[in-house]
């Protein structure tokens, strides 16, 4: 009887440990899984990434507005170079944002982005964007950061998008968490370029 009770308790204890470890694993996996879900579905205004421009364009036009914010921990000024632009569905647009490092040392920024209304995220496609990689700015350096995009013509076939005439593309720059590692890597790359015959350093 004691052996049966001991085995039953062992099974219950093992199940509880399995449940706890499973919950911990799910917690760690939830962020990347949520990010993947957003990237695939456009949930929360997450935009899509395209490898090629749209194959067709439609006469229906959409106004794209541009917004920029900077986290207080990053000593940059950051703004869009244009307020808005009007494009046909499927037409490729090229916009630019300007960033300037106001610190007296190199800093690394990383951008998060979304569009509003949220439901437009699945139709907003980026071809090129500064947000795909971390950005390093030297003291006082100012740069124009381009973004190439289009609004998928398939949006015209979605009844839920019939009321959408304006999409706002927003970026917020934050200080990169791995700033020191990125700066060390860039410095190492610069040293290698100087050591290589015929190499020319670039900013």
Structure commentary:
The protein has two helices and ten strands. With 203 residues, the chain is an alpha+beta fold. The chain is flat. Residues 22-44 and 195-203 have low confidence and may be disordered.
Number of domains: 2
- Mean pLDDT comes to 80
Listing every helix as H and every strand as E from the N terminus to the C terminus, the arrangement reads HEEEEEEEEEEH
| Alpha-carbon distance between the two ends | 77 Å
**Major beta sheet, strand line-up:** 1-7-9-5-3
- Residue share in helix: 25-40%
Structural class, please?
Answer: alpha+beta
User: How does the major sheet shape up?
Assistant: 5 strands, mixed
Quick structural summary:
With 203 residues, the protein is an alpha+beta fold. The chain has helices at residues 2-41, 179-195; strands spanning 48-49, 61-70, 76-80, 84-88, 93-101, 107-116, 124-129, 135-137, 142-151, 166-175.
List the helices and strands and how they pair.
Blueprint: H1 2-41, E1 48-49, E2 61-70, E3 76-80, E4 84-88, E5 93-101, E6 107-116, E7 124-129, E8 135-137, E9 142-151, E10 166-175, H2 179-195
Parallel strand pairs: 1-7, 2-10
Antiparallel strand pairs: 2-4, 3-5, 5-9, 6-8, 6-10, 7-9
């Amino acid at each position: 009887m004691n052996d049966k009770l001991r085995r039953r308790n062992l099974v219950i204890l093992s199940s509880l440990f399995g449940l706890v470890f499973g919950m911990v694993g799910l917690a760690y996996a939830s962020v990347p899984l949520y990010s993947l879900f957003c990237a695939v579905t456009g949930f929360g205004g997450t935009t899509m990434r395209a490898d090629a421009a749209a194959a067709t364009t439609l006469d229906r036009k959409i106004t794209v507005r541009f917004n920029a914010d900077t986290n207080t921990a990053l000593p940059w000024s950051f703004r869009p170079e244009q307020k808005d632009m009007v494009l046909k569905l499927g037409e490729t647009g090229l916009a630019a944002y300007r960033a300037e490092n106001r610190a007296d040392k190199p800093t690394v920024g990383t951008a998060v982005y979304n569009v509003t209304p949220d439901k437009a995220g699945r139709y907003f496609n980026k071809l090129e964007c500064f947000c795909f990689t971390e950005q390093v700015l030297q003291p006082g350096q100012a740069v124009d950061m381009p973004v190439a995009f289009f609004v998928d013509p398939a949006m015209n076939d979605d009844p839920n998008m019939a009321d959408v005439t304006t999409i706002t593309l927003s970026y917020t720059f934050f200080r990169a968490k791995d700033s020191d590692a990125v700066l060390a890597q860039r410095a190492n790359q610069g040293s290698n370029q100087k050591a290589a015959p015929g190499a020319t350093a670039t900013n």
